[in-house]
Amino acid sequence: MAIEQTLSIIKPDAVALNRIGDILARFERAGLQIIAARMLQLTPAQVAEFYSVHKDRPFYPTLVEFMASAPVMAQVLQGEDAVKKNRDLMGATNPRKASPGTIRYDISRDVPEAEMHRNAVHGSDSAETARAEIAFFFKAGEVLPRGR
Ligand code: CMP
Prior knowledge:
Layout: E1 3-10, H1 12-16, H2 20-29, E2 33-40, H3 44-50, H4 60-67, E3 72-80, H5 82-90, H6 103-108, E4 121-123, H7 127-137
Antiparallel strand pairs: 1-3, 1-4, 2-3
Helix pairs in contact: 3-4
This protein binds adenosine-3',5'-cyclic-monophosphate.
């Protein structure tokens, strides 16, 4: 398995619930290293660009408003098979369908179906997407891989 990097975002709902430390600890327990981290509040224009692949989907305006509504925490995770490992830790996009023990189940399982954009975390869906998403949040010198 290859050592990969992936982008993770702790979304405004999970930040507001004070779950940043809980989520970061899950990444570390799973053997992923946090090699960059940044808390910021995105502008609607930044969110619109980040999620532009979804621009024609009905949920896009709500997603943009939600992601720009309050601070998020963005981090780069590195480790073996990091993209899939992170997505396994996150669980299904719809938190109501996520498996027990996943981040989305544990934090967001009670959100109404109509609010499934409030799903606690984002993670890159491929190594290629990860490269673009990491560059969206971090300059080269801000990503700091380290020896084991
Ligand atoms: P994320 O993994 O960040 O990728 C796109 C986001 O859009 C997703 O998590 C959800 O927050 C949101 N999303 C995806 N599908 C839907 C949907 N059917 N209804 C509402 N929001 C959605």
